[in-house]
Amino acid sequence: MSGPMAVRSPRPATRSQSATTRSQSAREEEILAAAARIFREKGYHGASVRDIAESVGLLKGSLYHYIRSKEELLARLFEGALQETVRELEEIASRDASATERLRDMVRAYALSVTANLDSVGIYLREWRSLPPPELARVRARRRAMRSLFESVIADGARARDFAAGDAKIAALAILGMVNWIYEWYRPRGRLRPEALADELADRAVRSVRR
Q1: What CA–CA distance (Å, rounded) separates 128 from 112?
Q2: I need a surface site. Which of 57, 107, 121, 181 has the fewest CB within 10 A?
């Protein structure tokens, strides 16, 4: 039958429905946090769905109420992990400021993001190639987008003769590698607070490209 169909307005969610949604969302966040921890400790291939279920007090079968597979868990852990950071870096890179100021602020922002998400970053850097092809393609695109932001600011600095002339891509990769490696050695209860570490790495990054 042709012609427009009448659309029934959805009923407002009841208080009990809202509470159920919040409870399920909280449970999913708990599962994601447990998966991040276990994937980091055992590696993605060494961890099982049973390990994750037991860590949150669920039977293996009950866990499938929240997730479809281990692959989906890995994809969801990566979902938005780079997206938010890239958005913040884009905002800094586009500021009306010197390349030195922008590079320092970008490295600082990225270092703070890494220290705030050590488990997720560790999984990301070790296991990103285990993602299913569609998610893997998206992650690769975001990695390139992040590197391009650093390359662009470094090239700006070289043109302004603030930074040494050289290969901006290599300089960007070196800086990103320095910050990424935080996940391997940084300890939140150690002597350096995240802000102090971010400042130190930002200064080192700028010095590495200055004339």
Answers
A1: 21
A2: 57
* pLDDT tens per residue, range 63-86: 888 888 888 888 787 765 677 888
Whether 106 contacts 150, CB under 8 Å: yes
Cα 52 to Cα 60: distance, rounded to the nearest angstrom:
8
Instruction: Indicate the CATH number for domain 16-69.
Output: 1.10.10.60
How far is the C-alpha of 208 from the C-alpha of 144, rounded, in Å?
Answer: 21
Question: Are the C-beta atoms of residues 107 and 175 closer than 8 Å to each other?
Answer: yes
pTM for the full predicted model:
0.76
- Tokens matching residue 69: 């597979």
Please say whether the structural domain 79-209 has been given the CATH code 1.10.760.10. Answer: no
